[in-house]
Amino acid sequence: MIRCTQVMKKLHNLVLFVGLASVQAHSATILQYHHVSEKLPPVTSVSEDTFKSHLEHLKKGNYNVIALDEFLNHLKQGKQLPLGTVAITFDDGYDNNIEAAAPLLEKFNFPYTIFVNPKLIDEGKSYVMTWDELRTLSKRGALIANHSAQHDYLHLRQPGESEEQWAKRISHDLTWSQQRINAEIGHNYPYIAYPYGEFDSALQSLVQQLGLIGIGQHSGAVGPTTDFTRIPRFPASGIYSNLKTLKVKIDSLPFEIDQLAYNNSVTKERRPSVTITFKNMDFSKHQLACFVSGVGRAELNWHSENQVAVTSPERLPKGRSRYNCTAPSKTHKGRFHWFSQPWVIQIN
């Protein structure tokens, strides 16, 4: 009887360990900011008070706020991350980042990453930080990374440009930007935050060939099955800065996806479809809900117990759209799995 009890206790501990490992491996989110200012476009801005409230929530909630390189290296190597791991990022390198954001982040002792456009810095644009200012932040712990040379739409082909010419031009843009950041800052992280969050299949392939990790602006949590040519982030500015809704996103979990199938995220299809094959389903099939930005609930067509096609019920307008899919977790009560599929609809 004693031996049986000991065996049961060992089995219980093993199950508990496996459960904790599962929790740790599926628990990471990235926040994306632009401006910390009340004087600039509200769609990409947060006030200092709002930004401070975000940081206070992370501190009081004992979130594991870590640098982006540690965050991505752990996930790429299959290492575990504690539940509630968060990385903080800024796009474009605006001057208010050093004036307003950096002092608050340093007060809370939170690491962060700034994605910059080296050509715009070299040209001395008044709205972005200088190399001297970026070096100052880097010495104080900030990571400086690539946002392309001058914030172009990287997936767009120039008139008459062949695929080979496009690939050569974009390869030069990204590698030159990496070199400029390395020359000025002294570090060279292999990340590219896509300008405007837009990417197509060819750009994803090119980024992979260059040994870079592609980072978007579509929502979602990050996990072991995340495609590293399209890492999601949660925008936390403008209408997305409301802490009540942001809390749910910060606590979200990634779906475990075995396969993601769609023609192209930049498309002329007006009702594009994405088929998701789930690896493991920590949610009830009937509780999966997908919504189309500006439209409403998406159409779901289950092909099997673990494969679903998601389609818009209406034709999408020109420009950026998104399908957001969520489902409550069975094992982590109060948390939601979250996935987003971005689209750029091209209409002649």
UniProtKB/TrEMBL annotation:
<protein>
    <submittedName>
        <fullName>Polysaccharide deacetylase family protein</fullName>
        <ecNumber>3.-.-.-</ecNumber>
    </submittedName>
</protein>
<dbReference type="InterPro" id="IPR002509">
    <property type="entry name" value="NODB_dom"/>
</dbReference>
<dbReference type="InterPro" id="IPR051398">
    <property type="entry name" value="Polysacch_Deacetylase"/>
</dbReference>
<feature type="domain" description="NodB homology">
    <location>
        <begin position="84"/>
        <end position="348"/>
    </location>
</feature>
<keyword id="KW-0378">Hydrolase</keyword>
<dbReference type="InterPro" id="IPR011330">
    <property type="entry name" value="Glyco_hydro/deAcase_b/a-brl"/>
</dbReference>
<dbReference type="Pfam" id="PF01522">
    <property type="entry name" value="Polysacc_deac_1"/>
</dbReference>
<dbReference type="GO" id="GO:0016787">
    <property type="term" value="F:hydrolase activity"/>
</dbReference>
<feature type="signal peptide">
    <location>
        <begin position="1"/>
        <end position="27"/>
    </location>
</feature>
<keyword id="KW-0732">Signal</keyword>
